[in-house]
Design goal:
The structure is a single chain. By secondary structure, this protein is of the alpha+beta class. It is built from six helices and ten strands; from the N terminus they run αβββααββββααβββα. Strands 4-5-6-7 form a four-stranded antiparallel sheet, covered by helices on one side. Strand 4 (114-116) and strand 5 (123-126) form a beta hairpin.
């Protein structure tokens, strides 16, 4: 079932190759294949296998083949990967090996590999689809939300999903595309917020500095300073982050 390619240096004469090619074109041009998911590619002069995308309905190309049978088998394997036992195939499904199905799965995974949005976290597009895919990933767990026609709509859906999880506030601030006033830490309740697992502070840009027994505020690789309290370090981080248009732990009043 491996896609076939034209091989240079054939022992056949140039004249016989051209005659054979003309004969093939005459015989196959405009003629439908005997198999489901197979069509003759007039430009390339080979058989092409394709399977419908279950989301968009658009054809996913599975490659070019030298024979209808090889192309039909590629279609069968992709259909089995997508639909399992309910797949409609050209040949009996039990004739295919695990390696056959693995190759088909690899082709499909590459086709649907998420392409990150250039603007928003948790928003992706997959090749062959015009829709935007929204999903969230927190603590190593990824959850699909839905597909959207509009990129901004997908970004807002991702944000709402993050808020609904009740995950630690600092992780929300790190993940949200559009931070609202209510998303920030509150002056009178910040001590009630949970410190994420493996962290030494509940705030963005703050960690406990063991050698000095103080709190370190850091913006990226830049050390902002050491502070005696966690709150002071958070405020120092906020000032530095706000100056460069970054996210802050507490809401910065508009001037």
């Amino acid at each position: 079932m491996r896609p076939q390619f034209a091989i240079a240096g054939s022992h056949a004469s140039k004249g016989s190759r051209l005659a054979s090619r003309r004969s093939t074109r005459t015989c196959r041009a405009g003629v439908a294949s005997d198999f489901t998911g197979v069509a003759w590619h007039e430009t390339i002069q080979q058989w092409q296998a394709h399977v419908p995308d279950p989301v968009s309905g658009k054809p996913i190309s599975l490659g070019l083949f030298g024979s209808q049978r090889d192309a039909a088998q590629a279609f069968d394997c992709a259909s089995i990967v997508l639909k399992g036992d309910s797949a409609s195939t050209n040949f009996p499904s039990d004739t295919y090996t695990k390696d056959d199905l693995f190759r088909a799965e690899r082709i499909l995974k590459d086709f649907w590999r998420p392409r990150p949005s250039s603007q928003y976290r948790g928003v992706y597009r997959t090749r062959g689809s015009s829709k935007w895919r929204a999903e969230v990933e927190l603590h190593g767990v990824k959850q699909f939300i839905d597909n959207f026609d509009d990129e901004l709509e997908a970004a807002n859906a991702a944000d709402n999903a993050v808020r609904s999880t009740g995950v630690e506030r600092v992780l929300q601030l790190q993940t949200l595309n559009f931070v609202r006033d209510e998303d920030h830490f509150k002056e009178n309740t910040w001590e009630e917020e949970v410190i994420p697992r493996g962290a030494s502070s509940r705030f963005l840009g703050v960690s406990f500095h063991q050698p000095s027994a103080m709190y370190l505020a850091r913006l990226g690789r830049k050390h902002v300073g050491l502070y005696p309290t966690e709150l002071e370090a958070a405020k120092a981080f906020d000032e530095a982050s706000h100056a460069v248009g970054g996210v802050t732990n507490f809401r910065i009043p508009s001037k």
